[in-house]
User: Fold these one by one.
Assistant:
Number 1:
Amino acid sequence: MEYRKLGRTGLKVSPLCMGTMQFGWSVGQEETQRILSATVDSGINFIDTADIYSKWVDGNPGGVSETYIGNWLKGSHIPRDQIVIATKVRGEMGKGPNDQGLSRVHIMQAVENSLRRLQTDYIDLYQAHWTDDDTPIEETLRAFDDLVKQGKVRYVGASNYATWELMQALWTSDKNNLARFDSLQPHYNLIERDEFERELRAVCKAYEIGVIPYSPLAGGFLTGKYRKNTPLPESKRAEGRKRSMTDKNMLLIDGMEVIALRHQAAISQVAIAWMLVDPVITSPIIGATSIAQLNENLGALNIHLAEDEIASLNKLTEWKKEEDD
Ligand SMILES: NC(=O)c1ccc[n+]([C@@H]2O[C@H](COP(=O)([O-])OP(=O)(O)OC[C@H]3O[C@@H](n4cnc5c(N)ncnc54)[C@H](OP(=O)(O)O)[C@@H]3O)[C@@H](O)[C@H]2O)c1
């Protein structure tokens, strides 16, 4: 596998990152262990999690995904330094007023909890899951900078930041000589292009920020398993995917199917391959719920879309309005 630099840093990551939001939600501990081992065997060295995964499941206190990863890593013979672990802070981890957010007090507490659950003494990439309007960005970045200096965190990144918020953070780091966001985790895929492409992409390119998009398959929709007049697939996410089944998106699936057949590939592989064409993208975060899905996702690395195929996918998913040009 060819590894890529995460933005301007020297950190090398695989061209796909294994997301772990599904672990403790749609996938139990044993299957998680098998999927993670197969992930590393495939050459993927990059794992993304968050402290809140998957707190939305009844009876789940949050931190379950990190706990599963920690247990798997401890039980495996994989040296810690062969894996790049990314996790996140921001979400509500308790009922107290300081049990969420990006304040110094919460970050300092949350990092200790993540380290304990992950059973490691450092986090490779610590990300702000989303912004916190109650905390000045300088306070957040100073706390992150201290964690880098303490060796508890290697790099810091952001997720779900608007362009001006990302620029403000970069400027604050620069002005105060603090660790800066070296990665961005945006919501980005063929049916959700505008949020990233409108302005964030240009910032990431100009400032050499590693881009690790989440939901490259739109939660499973871009696999072709959601069709009109067909029962929904068995998935915890199926109900939520109904909103993606617009006429425009169903035409896209038809177009993707034609391209997939030409490459003897799966529709999901076309979705991931499309994203990998862009040199600004470092490593899409996949969310496989089985080894079969993982293998299919990995197959995307061998699909090389022709220019006319990329153009046709871009046309089918065009989002720019005339006045944007
Ligand atoms: N920063 C954030 O705010 C944020 C938000 C969301 C996600 N994330 C990160 O991004 C990761 C990936 O997100 P995601 O799960 O939404 O990614 P995704 O790749 O868009 O969707 C993954 C889902 O699609 C289905 N799937 C995957 N491969 C398939 C295949 N080959 N054939 C059929 N179905 C397939 C699976 O669901 P079923 O098997 O249930 O159908 C799987 O859980 C998460 O684990 C998390 O680490 C971050």
Number 2:
Amino acid sequence: MPSLSANLAGIKSPNPFWLASAPPTNSGYQIMKAFDAGWGGAVWKTLGVPVINVSSRYGSVNYRSNRMVGFNNIELITDRPLADNLREIEEVKKYFPNHAVIASLMVETKEEWQQIVKDVENAGADGIELNFGCPHGMCERGMGSAVGQEPSILQMITSWVKEVAKIPVIVKLTPNITDITEPAEAAARGGADAISLINTIQSLVGVDLDRFVAYPIVDGKSTNGGYCGPAVKPIALNMVKNCAQHSGVNIPISGIGGIENWRDATEYLLLGASNVQVCTAVMHYGFGIIREMTSGLESYMREKGFERLDDFIGKALPNIKTWENLNLHYDVKAHIDPAKCIQCQLCYTACEDGAHQAIGLPVEGRIPYIIEENCVGCNLCSLVCPVENCITMVRKDDGSQSENWKDFVAAGKAPDSFNDQRAGGLGHWVPEPASALERKK
Ligand SMILES: Cc1cc2nc3c(=O)[nH]c(=O)nc-3n(C[C@H](O)[C@H](O)[C@H](O)COP(=O)(O)O)c2cc1C
């Protein structure tokens, strides 16, 4: 049997699946129920000076029949007294000594930070997560994402915490920033033992067309919230990858954002996360989703011959390059399987109006065909096709040639227009991957 046991900067848990700091981790009752169901760890709903929350507080983006593709909230940190939370942390650790209990924290002054760290350590927490990510309400008070967007402040507060902390410290990052590696590096410089990302993305999910107010509505008014759920996973995956590949970060990563099942979680692990955290999926479907997550990950590991998580954490990273390192000679073309085609012609419309006019309609019958000389292999037809594996992309080059953009330009093969632009002649935006890479170093 492969082992699912996980270790994030010395914080051990029976599996890599943690609940993220949010309503599902608001109380000891919920966390014990989650551990009973099979979750490996939980990050407590952020503790600090208790707040007063508003109602309503949630909104969602629904896509066709799918509920809550994206989820939006304007909730703040815990509204429960600190003493109650501390007592319950102690209780949870008594019943579940081998599960990870992490205290998420957000306060203001150095004294408050250092005091609350001691409080949660005394209660028995296994680790601390600094919430520098909340992008609504708390940031207007100078906390949450207001800290996450200022690397020097983030570093300073992290080092205050590290002065007193005896347990590992995780810095939770805000995605509301241009380059996630800047706060990630600052966290490492401040002494953080790990980073977690992402917190929510600042958002408005929609506007009520009759009441002229955005959602969620609080007595006729609204405010921007934080976006999460399946819609944010691509953004979070990219940020996790950026941190994992960055030599200045070099501390373990806890991946968060849109995880609903074992596949989502495994993608994060393959991109370098040592474990994952889940919020929206549990708010949507309940703690029971953990059963599919653990059994799915176990089967995957068995199938691939992995004995432990370390066998595949980060395994996809070497295959993610900057654009100019991709092979320009790799050539695929679309192929339609007539036996599977349901003749909806969605592929035809998409390619005709939105791509390269590489799909034709027959004079007789309704099954479209590919015009190979026009097909650039973009994938659009296979993405819009409602039938699985009806349109596949078939390799046409013989695999013998490989040349990336850098070599292509160096060999003088770039079109004149590109060279003119590089010389600044046209005043257009000029892609300069090399200089961006230089900045990174
Ligand atoms: C209603 C709600 C409340 C949240 N409260 C907190 C919080 O108190 N502290 C925190 O660090 N993150 C909080 N989050 C953010 C989540 O921990 C998580 O980072 C985010 O939702 C992305 O994960 P997901 O896509 O699985 O939901 C909250 C999210 C939601 C939806």
Number 3:
Amino acid sequence: MSDTPRMQPFYCPYCGEQDLRPADPAGFHCQVCDRRFELTFLGLGEGA
Ligand SMILES: [Zn+2]
């Protein structure tokens, strides 16, 4: 699945800062609050 383009978050969901870097092996690392996280696409619509 490595050919799927990753979504790039603009803001850290925890502290709201924008200083995000790609993390190894996956996800993003917030330089400000030192949290790593990953965005997951759950599908379209409101869900069940
Ligand atoms: Zn943060």
